[in-house]
Amino acid sequence: MTIRFKRVLLKVSGEALMGAQGFGIDVAVADRIAGDIREARNLGIEVSVVVGGGNIFRGVAVASKGGDRVTGDQMGMLATVINALALRTSLAKIGIDAVVLSAIPMPEICESFSQLVALAHAEKGRVVIFAGGTGNPFFTTDSAAALRAAEMGVDALFKGTQVDGVYSADPRKNPNAERYVSLTYLDMLARDLAVMDAAAISLARENKLPIIVFNIHEPGAFTAVMQGEGKFTTVVDH
Ligand code: UDP
């Protein structure tokens, strides 16, 4: 399936921003991802971004130690705001105008999300960075990515991962893992592939939103994939 991309949403996980460190943000990695976003814009493609927070905090980590899941998730959502500010900083350094819109209002720090505001910023040529996930506990930033992608009316959701597509098992642990070139949403759900959570996949399916899984650590892969080059997995209904 060939998709012509005019407008895409990129999901950058917290893990991606962490780079090789065990925690936090590797500024060099954030700068590189910002550079990849600039390349896409140079091709005339409008890019918006949803950032994760797993490099700083995950709600389940609190819950697993007997803490309150909702509080943990709120901490996770705040973590995504920290990452969004870091990515905005990296984009600003290379002259790209970007704006952070948070699902949880914090007006001293960034603007609050609404679809109209997001579309208006995109229209003005800004990179819109969505922070705060969906604004609700018990969700993930993958679900936020599918949600914002639907709201922005993008042609595809680019899910940046640690490897170059969807595999039958983790290829870093299992050398016999099979890489899929294309899958349906139902394949993803039925095989319970640990790439995206089921809520995110279902939302993408309902909105006929193609998901493209690619390696965010490979410089230039984002734009290569948009031009149909390199390795990636496309999730669509055939
Ligand atoms: N989170 C949440 N609601 C959302 C999105 C995120 O409660 O809509 C919380 C949740 O605790 C999650 C954390 O924020 O673990 C960080 O997000 P995520 O795990 O999706 O980040 P990533 O894995 O992409 O780094």
Keyword list:
two-stranded antiparallel sheet; 11 strands; binds uridine-5'-diphosphate; single chain; 40% helix; 238 residues; alpha/beta
Number of strands: 11
Q: Please give the alpha-carbon distance between the first and last residues.
A: 8 Å
Number of helices: 9
Average predicted confidence as pLDDT: 94
Broad structural category? alpha/beta
Description:
With 238 residues, this protein is of the alpha/beta class. 40% of the residues lie in helices and 18% in strands. It is built from nine helices and eleven strands. The chain has helices spanning 14-18, 27-42, 59-64, 69-93, 115-123, 141-152, 185-191, 198-206, 221-226, and strands spanning 7-12, 46-51, 98-102, 111-112, 127-131, 156-161, 166-167, 179-180, 182-183, 211-215, 233-235. The strands form two sheets. The chain has a nine-stranded mixed beta sheet with strand order 4-3-5-2-1-6-10-11-9, sandwiched between helices. The chain starts with 6 loop residues before the first strand and ends with a strand. The model has no long low-confidence stretch (mean pLDDT 94). The chain binds uridine-5'-diphosphate. The site of uridine-5'-diphosphate has 24 residues, from helix 1, helix 4 and helix 6.
